[in-house]
Write a structure and sequence with these properties.
α8 (147-173) packs antiparallel against α12 (223-230) and α8 packs parallel to α13 (235-263). The chain is mainly α. It is built from 13 helices and two strands; from the N terminus they run αααββαααααααααα. It has one domain (14-266). Strands 1-2 form a two-stranded antiparallel ribbon. The chain crosses the membrane at residues 28-46, 66-86, 119-139, 151-178, 190-209, 238-260. InterPro entries: ABC-2_transporter-like. Keywords: Membrane, Transmembrane, Transmembrane helix. This is ABC-2 family transporter protein.
Length: 272
């Protein structure tokens, strides 16, 4: 009860973000249209790749499994997308962070609940419906649905949300020292998309690189939950993958706290 009371001041930040996003309904339609085109292009790309090969599978993925992978990785990347680095950089640049820092609340918790508003928005308006359709596709392709894998997938993406939040939060804190974050942001996003398995499953990378990529936090954001959903990991591998997610969350939380203590002392307000 006391814990909930401590979090109560932060709930309006999640609510305000959710209400702000829901007020722009056209954005949802445009987003869905754009992502649908991207999924369609990806579908026909993989169809062409599998059509040009003699075997029924590539790196352990059948064509149907790859289609499910594309949909689930898309949904996973969407629901964990709690990128608040831009918001932090904007506040530093326009000077509004000065007002936010003097408020009697934790800046870290405020940004976390603000990002939760985005998570709930995408979860309600895109994730639920698309996930149901994808699961129906999975049943149609393979004739079964593993409830345990679905539950473990949902738990894994919850860890993925925390993981991505702290990565984004740490990246956003760099704006305390770096004035213009645009170029660095573009490079980082490209690296994350490649190493998280959104574009290409990590199983398609060279054998020597796979253990490295799987240990890095990026694969824990998208690749791990997606592989759990597909049933590509056995019980031991699932436990190991979830443990890696937890370890990286702890590491990034620690780094974030250290960076905050160091950088807040030398913060220069540019605007305001």
């Amino acid at each position: 009860m006391k814990c909930f009371k401590n979090l109560k001041p932060y709930l309006p930040f999640a609510t305000n973000t959710f209400q702000r996003l829901i007020s722009y309904k056209a954005n949802v339609l445009i987003f869905i249209f754009g992502e649908s085109l991207m999924l369609a292009v990806t579908y026909y790309l993989w169809k062409a790749i599998y059509g040009s090969t003699e075997g029924a599978s590539i790196h352990g993925f059948s064509f149907n499994e790859m289609i499910i992978y594309v949909f689930i990785s898309f949904l996973t990347s969407l629901i964990i997308a709690v990128d608040i680095s831009y918001d932090i950089a904007r506040e530093v640049k326009d000077g509004s962070i000065a007002i936010n820092l003097i408020r009697p609340i934790s800046y870290e918790k405020r940004m976390f609940f603000q990002s939760l508003g985005t998570v709930f928005y995408y979860f309600i308006f895109i994730f639920i419906g698309t996930f149901a359709v994808t699961t129906a596709m999975f049943y149609n392709f393979f004739g079964y649905v593993n409830i345990a894998n679905i539950l473990l997938y949902l738990f894994s993406i919850t860890l993925g949300i925390l993981l991505n939040f702290y990565f984004s939060y740490i990246f956003g804190l760099l704006s305390f020292k770096i004035t213009n974050m645009w170029g660095l942001t573009q490079i980082t996003q490209a690296i994350v998309q490649l190493l998280s398995g959104i574009m290409i499953p990590i199983a398609f990378f060279p054998v020597w690189a796979q253990p490295i990529f799987k240990f890095l936090p990026f694969s824990s954001m998208v690749y791990t939950p997606t592989m759990i959903y597909l049933g590509k990991l056995n019980n031991t591998e699932i436990l190991k993958a979830l443990l890696i997610q937890v370890i990286w969350i702890v590491i990034l939380m620690t780094i974030a706290k250290i960076m905050w203590k160091k950088l807040i002392k030398t913060l220069t307000i540019l605007g305001g």
